[in-house]
TrEMBL record:
Biological process terms in GO annotation: jasmonic acid metabolic process; salicylic acid metabolic process
An example Gene Ontology molecular-function term: methyl jasmonate esterase activity
Top-level division of the source organism's lineage: Eukaryota
Gene name of this polypeptide: ga10816
Ranges for domain AB hydrolase-1: 22-126
Protein name per UniProt: AB hydrolase-1 domain-containing protein
């Protein structure tokens, strides 16, 4: 796994007793680097922290077109979870569009996720496909822009 600084993480080892493994997931247009201060504080408290760059983000130089599906975009997170030792459970923290990534990861690896924390993040519901969230943001985002334009013209 790649850290937010672009360095290769060491092999995944089990968390020490009392420590939590925490995976911080960035939003669109960012990379693992955006969690630097939070990761530093969590590590100082004794936790194992990873902040992977999702596909075509952060230090990953690929263009977004090389990650054509959401699963492709989220693959670095999914691979990190797949590599965890059996029985280890992590805390996933997602910000902004990272909420969609941690929701997918929790759905695919429920046995490896202790809790998912959505920090001002997109949160899909249980009755619609993931694309519904993006559709709603687009609709409401356009409505908000129209409302702002109307309010500022008065």
């Amino acid at each position: 796994m790649t850290t937010g600084s672009g360095e290769q993480s060491p092999a995944v080892a089990p968390a020490a007793e009392g420590a939590r493994r925490i995976i911080l997931v960035h939003g669109t247009g960012h990379g693992g680097w955006c969690w630097y201060r939070v990761a530093t504080l969590l590590r100082a408290a004794g936790h194992l922290v990873d902040a992977p760059d999702l596909a075509a983000s952060g230090a990953d130089p690929r263009p977004l077109r090389d990650a054509p599906t959401f699963d492709d975009y989220t693959r670095p997170l999914l691979e990190a979870l797949a590599a965890l030792p059996e029985g280890e459970r992590v805390v996933l923290v997602g910000h902004s569009f990272g909420g969609m990534s941690i929701a997918l990861a929790a759905e695919m690896f429920p046995e490896k996720v202790a809790v998912a924390v959505f920090v001002t993040a997109f949160l899909p519901d249980c009755s619609h496909p993931r694309s519904h969230v993006v559709e709603q943001v687009t609709v409401h985002g356009c409505l908000a822009l129209i409302w702002l334009a109307l309010m500022s013209s008065g």
